[in-house]
User: What shape does this take?
Amino acid sequence: MNMAPGVAEPVDPLVLGDVLARHHRDRPDAPALQFEGRCFGYGKLMRRTARAAARLWHEWGVRPGDRVAYLGLNHPDQITLLFALARIGAVLVPLNFRLAPAEWQAVLADCTPLYVVHDAAWADAGDALARAAGIPAHAIDRLIATHAPGDGPARATPDSPALLVYTSGTTGLPKGAVHTHANLLANMVAACAAQGLTSADVVLTVLPMFHVGGLCIQTLPALFAGAAVILHARFEAGATLAAIAQDRPTLTLQVPATMKALIEHPAWAATDLSCLRAVWAGSSLIPAALVTALHARGLPVCNVYGATETGPFSIALDAQHAMTHAGSCGWPARGVEVRLADLQDGVGELLLRAPSVVRSYWPDQPAVDADGWFHSGDRARQATDGSFTVVGRAKDMVISGGENIYPAEIEHLLASHPLVADCAVLGLPDARWGEVLVAVLVFKTQSGVVPASDGIDSLLNWEQTLSDFLRGHIARYKLPRRWVRLDALPRTALGKVQKAALARQVLDVAGPSRSDPGDLPMLRPGEFKNNSDL
Assistant: This one.
């Protein structure tokens, strides 16, 4: 990070509190957080953290190892709460506000926090959740409302848990990944190095900090580097573009859904994006059309690959290579070891080992193997230059007629077609081929019909239209044998397609696949309703 002239490089932080202490000592007036017109310098953030730690210790009775849950939108005191709990060796459990109450209750039953802390927007839900769990609830504004007597003692060590983040649970019940101080700091070092983060940067955070993407890819690394963070309560395309135009951030993190919303917003073309040296994406697979649209504006689309359990900063495509390696995840981040296991035709499962990788799920289930490797479940190939490209989930691979097929390849092609708003490709059992591919589609509509600009007068020939489109890009054996239309795909609260649930619905409605695709019943609009029905 950049240091002021004449200031000696400090000892590397060992616990989270060292990060704020360093900046408080060397540059207390430098901006740390900006939120809804308020600015918090590093000195002020440090004082708020000390006051919050005192309240947590003396009034709330929080002790080392205790958990405190947070339910709410992004808030500067969510950062205060994290650092205050970390100071005394306690643990923040950020709750995904998109989950259903039963899912929140399952998380609380698993990790048994002392309190639920909530913001104003989620006050009713937070109070109800706390009552159901039999624990108190507190508004986030109470954390530093008045000065608590005494200090919150510094009880943390590098191995103390600081953050408990639950996985999205696409294949089973969510599990709580236990991030220690050492894990989080190692991730910050790797993220700063890959992104070139310094104290001169301004980072725009609009993704939710209940997940390691919004919290740990840029927000915490920016604070580690002494940069300024512009924090939005939640993503809104117009507000994001306005912040880029007015606040002039140098970096921001997006995901495919928010990238799409920005590109389609009326203000996109007129917004001056020259302040940004890159847009980072927290997704291993980004539709090519989105990358092309940002590259056309001169914005490198950098990518970070990882998981809730890995920091998540594990493999990174930096700005230097973004234009030449579109579609790749890049190279291992600083301190990260990567290898491919169970290689078949150059494709293997990604295994990761690094100081940022968690060792356990709550409370003490192993998250890595005996040698410290995290098994991602993702399949990837490595190019001769050392870069990695993810081709899909191991569990999603379809074997049809003895050929290995990765649905992600077909999904990305279908997503680029003007008819398609959303899609998923599944493998269903088949007596002749072992499995056959099924493409499940959500169409773009305008007043309930396909836009006339797509050149299709009706939906009667859409299967043939999309088959012809794919035939020009992929081998014949990769073509879907079956096509299904839906109003929406079932997704987790983090936006991942629930393929197991989707496959069950396809089988329930149409039955198992048969060898002759001409015999298959075609599902039509209305046979599946929407996400809430799945």
